[in-house]
């Protein structure tokens, strides 16, 4: 018998022993699937959680949502590499998610979930569950995830397979840039990262407080890899590039990277990336490196595969609040058909 409940207060989730265990770092080997991640999004990023939980005996399925006015979305943002529901090992995740989808029909007219992977079957699982519960589902690719399967190689073997231009850059610039990889949180190094980010080509940071709190927690857990680069011939000793990675469950996640525009001739970002790749491949012995979302051209120099990320837009077919949306979708399809014709 599937029972569905909702939690707007994450302390309720934390106080439930079964849920807390399922959503802990002991059970989930990626930060995006953990209660602590959602707590950070709520505390620092202004997202109001609505955690949907389906229970069947000792089995759980959890769908972390946010939103208002009957339109719900994923409890995630630009810091999340991907979004997916979390289920107990061995549970019938499809049946539990179908229970959530059926119950959501009384609370929402539209649910939009972005960033779902499907190499593990997540997008298909969620789509099937909502269709089974009577929702209309539109599915499309919304983003790309660049990744590297290390496949047992050491760093030297991996580097030999990189593009010639990158290898030449590293050979020419490595002697001009000093790098350091910290495995703990260091306040001075983090201040340097924030200063570098402000002077980089990157857009304004969405939530610096979230990122700092996450880095501190990952440092305390031993998962942080914080890289800092300096120009060897600079008397000031000013850091010119910084990167934040984390490592767990055999995967290295590349969260943030930035360099000072004034230091671009030294290619400090590339040299620092090489140092971190060496650290996680030869030192941490990871099997995968995940470069997050975004189809930036420079990622292709380091990564060897691209995985799609999907958006599912789910609608209650009889809700009047969706009729205007259906009309717009119909008009777009007619326009596309006319253009092809």
TrEMBL record:
Gene3D superfamilies: 3.40.630.30. InterPro entries: Acyl_CoA_acyltransferase, BioF2-like_GNAT_dom. Residues 166-300 form the BioF2-like acetyltransferase domain. It comes from the Bacteria. This is GNAT family N-acetyltransferase.
């Amino acid at each position: 018998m599937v029972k569905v409940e909702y939690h707007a207060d994450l302390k309720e989730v934390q106080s439930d022993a079964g849920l807390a265990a399922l959503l802990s770092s002991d059970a989930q080997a990626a930060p995006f699937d953990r209660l602590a991640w959602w707590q950070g999004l709520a505390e620092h990023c202004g997202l109001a959680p609505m955690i949907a939980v389906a229970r069947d005996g000792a089995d759980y399925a959890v769908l972390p949502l946010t939103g208002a006015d009957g339109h719900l979305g994923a409890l995630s943002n630009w810091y999340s590499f991907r979004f997916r529901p979390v289920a107990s090992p061995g549970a019938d995740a499809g049946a539990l998610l179908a229970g959530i989808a059926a119950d959501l029909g009384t609370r929402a007219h539209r649910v939009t979930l972005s960033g779902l992977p499907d190499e593990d079957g997540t997008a298909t699982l969620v789509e099937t569950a909502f269709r089974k519960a009577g929702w209309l589902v539109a599915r499309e690719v919304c983003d790309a995830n660049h990744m590297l399967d290390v496949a047992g190689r050491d760093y030297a073997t991996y580097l030999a397979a990189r593009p010639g231009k990158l290898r030449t850059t590293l050979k020419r610039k490595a002697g001009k840039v000093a790098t350091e990889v910290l495995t703990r949180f260091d306040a001075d190094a983090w201040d340097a990262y924030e200063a570098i980010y402000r002077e980089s080509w990157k857009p304004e940071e969405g939530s610096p407080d979230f990122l700092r709190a996450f880095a501190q927690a990952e440092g305390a857990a031993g998962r942080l890899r914080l890289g800092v680069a300096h120009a060897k011939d600079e008397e000031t000793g000013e850091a010119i590039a910084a990167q934040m990675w984390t490592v767990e469950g055999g995967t290295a996640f590349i969260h943030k990277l930035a360099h000072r525009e004034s230091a671009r001739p030294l290619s400090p970002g590339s040299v620092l990336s090489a140092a971190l790749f060496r650290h996680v491949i030869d030192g941490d012995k990871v099997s995968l490196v995940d470069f997050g979302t975004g189809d930036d051209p420079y990622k292709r120099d380091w990564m060897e595969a691209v995985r799609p990320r999907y958006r599912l837009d789910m609608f209650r077919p009889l809700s009047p609040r969706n009729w205007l949306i259906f009309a717009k979708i119909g008009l777009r399809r007619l326009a596309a058909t006319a253009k092809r014709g």
